Amino acid sequence: MPKRPVVLIVGHGSREASANQEFEQLVARYQARRPDLEVRYGYVELAQPSLSDALAEIPADCDEAILLPLFLFAAGHVKNDLPLALAAARRQRPTVSFRAARALGVHAALVGLALERAEESASSAPDEASRTAAIVVGRGSSDPDANGDFCKFARMVAEARSFAWVVPAFIGITRPKFEETLEFVARARPERLLVLPYLLFGGRLLSQLQNQVADFLARYPWIKTTLAPHLGVHESLLAVLDERLAEARNGQAPLPCDNCQYRAALPGRAESLGGLRALLWSLRHSFTHAQAAPHVHAHRPMSKHVLVCGNIDCAARGSMGLVESLRRSLKDAGRERDVRVTVTSCMGRCGEGPTVAVYPDGIWYRGVREEDAAELVEEHLLADRLVARLVDNIMQ
Q: Rg of the chain over CA atoms, in angstroms?
């Protein structure tokens, strides 16, 4: 009697035990749904068993093993870590047919699940949607292809319901960030605001989101704001897994590389192009994501962090041009890696900007113009001399 195919569901992994428990619940539900398969699981990082250990435990006499990545979109883990792990597994067990399914991706069933979660947090008023602004919140990625898919998903949510306004935002890594999007949407004075987290499971990111929503409610109590539940374990997810598994077994799921930054010269990311860079990125990423806290990042510490107000008042006075001039001057000086320039939301000095703060020095400047950028870089950021005529405050 032939052995059942092995399906290895791959999760990201979390430092929060509750998030891993949710993932493992889903794995158990999928095993109950598919008794014709032997369902196992492994994590890319932060939890055990690791992906490499889970692959090593697949029996050598298995005929067929399929990796089923439980990732909403295809970014670095799906595009790099999984193929590298598969290549190693194929070398170790050449008699086993290893395949990989694609990520969950933009799927109508997941749009429906997100809307179901939204409705769980809404009242029964029939016209509520038309009076509600919605922020769809994703994790954020360093892969522009994955971020583009997320924005497409947010648009599909907008098309499916008559919300007054739907905007995408990210918790981290890329922009627009959720906190700055909250402030932006608040200026439109919506009657209601729905925050829809497009996250598979709970964990630290969801806790961070809950805290940010609570802070927003304290500042804007007149906007009725609700946070919808995350996706969680649901039949819709299991159905999409079935579909992705069938694609992989039928040979219909090539790697999602058409717009991968490592294979296509996307504007602003041409330095990422090339298979060798993809390999090096993945190895570095795997090495620096230690299994135990603290979380180590593969970059040098910054010598200075420059914050530039990007709120509407400062932006109208030229702060965005100032940001570009500061970055250009730092790049010309070869210091763009250890002196970072970041756009912030309101810094509380409206009418006096553009406002610039330099840390760890604790120096605040006001009325800084684009033409002041070269002097600010040369004098303060490179030579540690204050530009006295622009100083607003010195933090102690």
A: 24
- Dihedral angle, C-alpha 309, 132, 171, 257, nearest 10 °: -110
HEC profile of 58-110: CCCCCCEEEEEECCCCCCHHHHHHHHHHHHHHHHHCCCCEEEECCCCCCCHHH
AA identity, residue 350: C
Q: What is the DSSP letter of 177?
A: B
Helix pair angle (275-288, 82-92), 10° resolution: 90
Tell me the pLDDT tens digit for each residue of 5-58.
999 999 999 989 999 999 999 999 999 999 999 999 999 998 999 999 999 999
Q: Quickly list H helices, the chain.
A: 17-33, 51-56, 76, 82-92, 108-120, 144-160, 178-186, 204-219, 235-249, 275-288, 312-316, 319-332, 373-375
For every residue of 346-363, DSSP letters joined together read --S-TTS-S-EEEETTTE
Q: Which of 10-19, 125-134, 216-225 has the lowest mean pLDDT?
A: 125-134
**In contact, 181 and 135? CB cutoff 8 Å:** yes
Going by their DSSP bridges, the two strands 224-227 and 192-197 should be labelled as parallel
- Per-residue pLDDT of 164-195, as tens digits, reads 999 999 998 899 999 999 999 999 889 999 99
